[in-house]
């Protein structure tokens, strides 16, 4: 008995997801956010959980603002190794009107932020408020084209 069209579509989609995951692992696609929006939407749903403004360009502006320094351990780290952490643990930040707080973190420090979240949140907000006057990223207008 032939497979229903719905089952064929699910299998086709799963195979395409596998191909993209394989390309990401082999460095052919560095980050999932490099996928075209239509592809990302197709594979991860219309709303993947993150604000659409939290893209590669925005992450770069956060890292650049802090001088490519991990705010957890204060080490200057290669751009490709730094992650951008949502200080308020709010994936909708930038889109929901709440004041967004972001910091660049190395993988070790980023992993630590999954524990004692309230303490990390207080620490990073205090640093942003006191040392950076509440700012945590460059606007598009402040960025100098490369």
Overall domain count? 2
Let me know the largest β-sheet. 2 strands, antiparallel
Overall CATH class of the largest domain: Alpha Beta
Specify the oligomeric state: single chain
Strand coverage percent: 5-15%
Q: How do the SSEs run, as a string of H and E?
A: HHHEEHH
At a glance:
Helix content is 42%, strand content 5%. The chain is mostly helical.
Verbal overview:
The chain is mainly alpha-helical and 146 residues long. The protein folds into two domains: 5-44; 56-132, His-Me finger endonuclease fold (3-Layer(aba) Sandwich), CATH 3.40.1800. It has five helices and two strands; from the N terminus they run αααββαα. A two-stranded antiparallel sheet has the order 1-2. The N and C termini lie far apart (58 Å). The relative contact order is 0.12. Mean pLDDT is 76; it is low at 24-30.
Which helices and strands appear, and what pairs or packs with what?
Layout: H1 5-25, H2 37-44, H3 56-65, E1 83-86, E2 102-105, H4 107-112, H5 117-132
Antiparallel strand pairs: 1-2
Q: How would you describe this structure in keywords?
A:
single chain, 146 residues, mainly alpha, His-Me finger endonuclease fold, 2 domains, two-stranded antiparallel ribbon, 2 strands
């Amino acid at each position: 008995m032939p497979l229903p069209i719905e089952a064929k579509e699910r299998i086709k989609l799963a195979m395409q997801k596998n191909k993209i995951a394989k390309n990401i692992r082999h460095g052919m696609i560095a980050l999932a956010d490099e996928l075209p929006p239509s592809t990302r939407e197709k594979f991860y749903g219309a709303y993947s959980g993150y604000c659409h403004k939290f893209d590669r360009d925005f992450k770069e502006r956060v890292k650049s603002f802090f001088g490519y320094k991990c705010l957890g351990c204060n080490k200057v780290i290669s751009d490709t190794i730094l992650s951008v952490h949502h200080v308020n643990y709010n994936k909708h930040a930038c889109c929901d009107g709440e004041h967004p707080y972001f910091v660049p973190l190395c993988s070790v420090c980023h992993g630590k932020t999954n524990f004692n979240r309230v303490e990390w949140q207080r620490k990073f907000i205090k640093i942003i408020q006191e040392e950076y006057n509440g700012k945590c990223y460059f606007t598009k207008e402040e960025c100098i084209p490369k």
